[in-house]
Design goal:
Layout (H helix, E strand, L loop, with lengths): L3 H13 L2 H27 L6 H7 L2 H12 L4 H6 L1 H6 L5 H23 L1 H10 L5 H5 L1 H27 L4 H29 L4 H7 L1 H9 L5 H26 L2
Helix pairs in contact: 1-7, 2-4, 2-7, 3-13, 4-7, 4-10, 4-11, 7-10, 7-14, 10-11, 10-13, 10-14, 11-12
């Protein structure tokens, strides 16, 4: 892993100049800003069952569906299209270092955007300037649990995007594949769990384990369960391992 840090810094510089990075940032912040504004509007007109900060985290799926494909689509696909991946493979750099550097750079920007999004509840708290409302916007349990979930789920989401990018030379195809897989995680599995509840209840528990939205409900309440932690870490390792094998296979052709 001697070259990992050098590769990581290079990937971060590349992403800083990539239009897709700014497109992902703009889209993400606009969507999260609109979501938080809508939450404030709903809370001002009627009493809600959950606090605004928890609602804010529960709305993570919409921006993630677009942000992750934009952040990861060029990681390996563009390298293969330009032929620079094969050249890189001839240098004394391991495939693991290449994959981890690209993964870490995309994950860094993913966390950075979520850190910036924290400014919305902070701004609301400062503008309203009422001490009794601070727990609604900056509840420590919800804040810590929500960001732990964001960080853990982001590992698997970014790894999935990197894997899809390694399967094709087209950035557009990579983005579509990533979007489709994330849609399965976020939309299809919850729908299947509802069907399991109606027709075959024993399927509910395995589907709930794989369904990311059910994990969010616990984390957003400040409840940190070790089972989802193991789930995200293990599956991220598996997906990154598959991406490494794909890069190794494609780079030797």
């Amino acid at each position: 892993m001697r070259h990992y840090l050098h590769l990581l810094l290079h990937e971060i510089r590349v992403m800083l100049f990539a239009p897709a990075t700014y497109a992902a940032s703009t889209l993400f912040l606009l969507l999260m800003g609109y979501v938080f504004y809508s939450i404030l509007q709903d809370n001002s007109t009627s009493e809600q069952e959950v606090i605004p900060l928890e609602q804010f985290f529960r709305a993570f799926s919409l921006p993630v569906l677009f942000m992750v494909p934009l952040l990861t689509m060029r990681s390996l696909a563009e390298e293969r299209r330009l032929g620079t991946l094969e050249t890189l493979m001839t240098t004394p750099v391991s495939t693991v270092e290449i994959v981890l550097a690209k993964f870490s750079a995309a994950y860094f920007f993913y966390l950075l955007l979520w850190a910036v999004a924290l400014g919305f509840p902070i701004l609301a708290d400062r503008v309203l300037d009422r001490g009794d409302l601070t727990p609604l916007f900056l509840d420590q349990g919800v804040l810590i649990g929500g960001y732990i979930y964001v960080g853990l789920s982001g590992l698997l989401f970014i790894a999935t995007g990197l894997l899809c990018s390694g399967l094709t030379r087209s950035q557009l195809v990579a983005a579509m594949l990533t979007f489709s897989l994330l849609l399965i995680f976020i939309v299809v599995l919850p729908a299947l769990r509802e069907q399991a509840d109606a027709f075959n209840g024993w399927l509910r528990f395995p589907l709930q384990y794989f369904e990311v939205t059910s994990h969010l409900e616990d984390f957003a309440r400040g409840i940190v369960d070790t089972r989802p932690v193991a789930y995200y870490l293990l599956n991220t390792s598996v997906v990154l391992g598959l991406a490494t094998l794909i890069v190794e296979a494609r780079g030797t052709r």
